[in-house]
């Protein structure tokens, strides 16, 4: 076909074990059975443990392991299964348009009878730029919309009759994101019609001609991702030795005789440990693969899990930026911080080149130096703050021109005419807190029990901070504005400091004899130095740091501590039982050994974690910065306020969510290993002026829009 976009998927043919978990459990079950003769027992354990690898090596099994994938063509959007059979199909004649929601990245199909959410672009294996360009080439309108796909699927959004348009979809268009895609498409069109650069020395252009592009660099340049430690060869050797050790121990048990339950249990444990070690080693080897690029003016050679070679004449432009890559273990599409899309002169996507682990700066400049047209995404969209409009009633959005007012001794929501349509009596308000978040004034409301039930920026409530504070205090409502009170206190003390300062003490001078001419010259020099002696001493004490400044000390949550206690005890019990199985025949049997090893394991688990817990780490939050200190006072690390750009949860797709500290430039500088209470941490950051959430290197995130 002229224009075709195939989602990222594994073509199949890869050797992988089939149902390794069930077969491992079956091998353990066979090891516990009293099968005679003993050589048959050992042979069955080895055969069952090796069955997943033998099944995965069959050619028929490799062909059937191909994953379903999506394809966008002139005929429409369809999902293809193994063998190229169509599972789901959206015909082109029935599609009115496509839309991608910016918050969740879900592709939605608009048709005559409504709309349908197809799925996330990441799971479909399609990049936004490739989908945008291909859909426009085949004549499908595609737009980027704000919000989530769940808002698009709300039937209440379709109140108007007539054909569906994107302006009536219930969400506004994300013009910034759509404009970035249009700009990249324009760069692709320009690159498709530009002549390629050649190697050699550039000829000077005439005065009446446009300046010619710089010549491409000659020679080859090699780039590679950092090597994994330990190396894949060492990991594979460890897995092979673990499997060989397990097979040897099972053979030894079979030779000595597996008459009792203890030897059979030991053989089952060895079989489970060996198969588990081999599977873990395989996963580590797959994840340790390096990405190697060989860049020249004639071709591109990329080696990762597979090899890709592209001639420079076929490539019109390369899009360098965030993209997709196949998960090395599950072979499912995953987000990647860096990937390269290769487009030809007909704006068709001809290759997806992996680049995770490489430096984007080095890669982009190396490609440009060798004559390739490099396209990068524009300014990334600002990150929205992590503060939500929790508890906003639906009536707020239904009142035109609504605003927050203080009326009848409580709070209310008034319309444009001033009529209060929603009231909150004074007995339900336990406290009103005014604070500043990301440079914007916010209000928090607490009930009579002290629990927070409402939080919103004052710009969304259409009331100023001064009006809310003064009117609420006149009405007798409990208002707390710590920043304003601190300002008044500082202004008051600075104003009265000169009035309250005591006058200098006058000391009586003793009577001195009359000075003669000879003594006058002798007393002149000391008199000149007397004003310098009266100068006050300057305090050169440095300001308090993150460890010594007044602040809040946050500990790990009780739930996590109890869970860690339990995990420590469970691990020690497992080691005790395995030791009883291993050393039981020499120490009087499994039951006798377990009778004293299990209590010892319990005491070791509880005592060992108690020794660790008594000196556990704690997070200190202050106006001077952040610090992690132990309960005995040892400082593990500290960061000054000028080095903290944000504090929050890093939910990167390639690792588990973690609590980190970002620099002002957006780089992760520290990771908090223990989980404190996130609500208390957020309030502490707001109290001491530390930003909560990831920093935005481009521009500060605005407050939520008015309702």
From TrEMBL:
Signal peptide: none annotated. Residues 191-226, 498-551 are annotated as: Disordered. Coiled coil: none annotated. Residues 506-528 have a biased composition (Low complexity). Keywords: Membrane, Transmembrane, Transmembrane helix. The keyword GTP-binding does not apply. The chain crosses the membrane at residues 15-33, 39-58, 235-255, 261-281, 562-583, 589-612. This is Uncharacterized protein. It comes from Actinomadura barringtoniae.
